[in-house]
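SUBJECT: protein chain
CONTENTS: sequence, structure tokens:
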Amino acid sequence: LLGNHEEMLLAALEGQSELDFWMKFGGMEVLASYGYSGGRGLRPGALRGIIPAEHVEFIRGCRDYFETVQHFFVHAYYDPHLPLHEQKWGGLRWASLPPIPERHCSGKVAIVGHTPQKNGEILDLGYLKCIDTFCHGGGWLTALEIEGGRQVWQANEAGELWG
């Protein structure tokens, strides 16, 4: 799925102000994962020499949403009153959950992220499950099996498993 950080990366490839913004919100960590140890004085063209072209193409091919018979998946949130194919990409990539998220008009269970659950627990409203368990802030990286056993896997930054 295409989320806000992937969107920022793609924009960073095109312009300096977008690159500077991305660098403040995870870009340095991404570059370090590719072995880059330089400073912040990069230019957009330099990213092409650090991030493999096939990785950029993979990200360009990501979708705004994915759906199955019973579920749909988005990075952030959705307009509950619009079918998925009519959603605005900004909400799907950037919108945080409202205090009381609404059920989507499709009746499907929404699997979302982007809004950190700082208690480390999946927010499970039945019709919506938010699996962002604050990994970026020292919490857990969470994966959820939606079919069958509904297994949950969580790992912390040290790779220790929970649950």
